[in-house]
C-alpha cells in the first residue's frame, strides 16, 4: 500500500496510525491493499446501515450506462455544474474523501480530472462498490481508492482530508446529525466539507409527489421533472423511482440545524448551492432572515428541481495560523 494512502488510514477502534505497523492498543492491522479496503469484511452492517446497504446492494446509485468509460464519464460530469464547480475548486494534489460515494462516479471524475489528487471513496454497499471497482478497472484510474465501511466507523484518519464530499448520504442514516459530525471530523485544518442533504423545504413538493405515488401505486410522471424527461434510459428511470419513491430510510433537515451541527464540529459556513456558482465564493452570513428567504426559494424550486430538494453547503475548518493560505483550495 502506498505511503500517501497509509497516512490517511487508522484503526477504526482506537484511531491509532497504521504507518508503523499494526495498532499497538488492539493489534488490528491495516486492511490488505489492492482492490478494496474492506473494513466490514463478512460483518453485515447493523441497524439502518443494514437496511440502507441492502437497498443499494440491489440498486447501486448512480447507475453506469452500458459502455461507460473514462471519456463518457468525463463528458457527463463536466456537463453537471456542481461537478464542474467542485473540480474547479479542488487543487491539483489535494486529498479528497467522498463519503457515501455510491458507485463513485463523482470520485472517479475528480480522480480523472486531477491525476495528482488522491481520492478515496467510502461506502457501505457492496453492490455500489462492486460497480465502482469495475469502472475503476475499466477506466484505469490509479489515484482512486475504495473503502467499504460504515461512515460511523471507518479506517480513515480524522482531520486528514483537504476536501470531504458527502452528498445524498446523511439523510439516509439513523442519526443524520451524528453523520454530519462524523463527516466533519475528517476535514483537515484549512480543509472543506461539501455536504449535500434533503432540505426540509426543498423536499416538500416531492413529499406530496411521493404521497400521490403511494396512493396511486406508481409515480405520476408529469409531476416529476426527472420522469418527465423523454431521453431518460429505462434503467435510469427505474433507479430514480427506487431512490426517490421507495427508499426505506429517509428524512429531511433544516439548514439552521445543519449549520449548528457543523459549527459544533468546528466548521464555519462558506456558502450554499443553489444558487449555482463557484464553491469558493463566500456568501453572506446566514442570518434567520436570509435562511427564511432561502427556505422559500427552495420550496418553490421543488416543482422543477431535478435534485428533488437536495441542498449543498460548503463548510470550512479554520487553517492553522502558521499555514493560513497554503493553497488547499483555489480561492
Ligand atoms: C443516494 S446515494 C449517493 C451516492 C453519491 N454520494 C452521489 O451523490 O451520487 C447514498 C449512498 O450513501 C451510502 N450510505 C448510506 N448510509 C451510509 C453509511 N452509514 N455509511 C456509508 N455509506 C452510507 C449508500 O450505501 C449509498 O451508496
**Helical stretch count?**
11
For the terminal residues, how far apart are their CA atoms? 33 Å
Q: What is the total domain count?
A: 2
CATH class of the largest domain: Alpha Beta
Give the structural class.
Answer: alpha/beta
Q: Say how many strands there are.
A: 8
Shape type: globular
Biggest sheet strand order reads 1-4-3-2-5-6-8-7
Q: Quick check: average pLDDT?
A: 92
3D structure, described in words:
With 331 residues, the protein is of the alpha/beta class. The protein has 2 domains: 1-30, no CATH class; 33-323, Vaccinia Virus protein VP39 (Rossmann fold), CATH 3.40.50. It has 11 helices and 8 strands. The chain has helices at residues 3-6, 48-58, 70-78, 81-89, 105-113, 126-139, 176-184, 204-216, 234-245, 255-264, 288-301; strands at 37-38, 95-99, 118-123, 144-148, 161-167, 187-198, 267-273, 310-317. The protein has an 8-stranded mixed β-sheet, with helices on both faces. The longest helix is centred in the middle third of the chain and has 14 residues, at 126-139. The radius of gyration is 19 Å and the shape is globular. The mean pLDDT is 92. The chain binds S-adenosylmethionine.
Key terms for this structure?
2 domains; alpha/beta; 8-stranded mixed sheet; single chain; binds S-adenosylmethionine; 16% strand; 331 residues; Rossmann fold
Give a nutshell description of this structure.
With 331 residues, the chain is α/β, with parallel strands linked by helices. It has two domains: 1-30, no CATH class; 33-323, 3-Layer(aba) Sandwich (Rossmann fold), CATH 3.40.50.
